[in-house]
Amino acid sequence: MNYVLAAGKRLVEDGSSVLIQARGRSISKAVDVALITVDRAKGGVKLDDIGINTEVLPGADGSPLNVSSIKIFLSKP
Question: Which of 5, 39, 53, 58 has its CA 20 to 30 A from that of 16?
Fold first, then answer.
């Protein structure tokens, strides 16, 4: 819930857009935050763009590890 409030506050105070980013297991929380923010704004915020990516990071044992990431752009219409 705090993330939803922060996103809404940022849109109201700082400008016309906000970027929500997440990696790995936090992706579902980022999607929830974006959708709740859009729903609560009642037309005052739109989903502008979504970007997905897979990053290859070194694992604990040195082997490559694929980590998914997402970027969600919200903006005022």
Answer: 53
Provide the angle, in degrees to the nearest 10, between the axes of the packed helices 2-13 and 27-41.
50
Each residue of 11-21: pLDDT tens digit? 888 778 999 99
User: Candidates 3.40.605.10, 3.30.110.20, 2.30.130.10, 2.60.120.260; correct CATH number of 2-75?
Assistant: 3.30.110.20
Own/partner pairs, 38-43, CB within 8 angstroms, 24+ separation = 38/74, 40/4, 40/8, 41/8, 41/11, 43/77
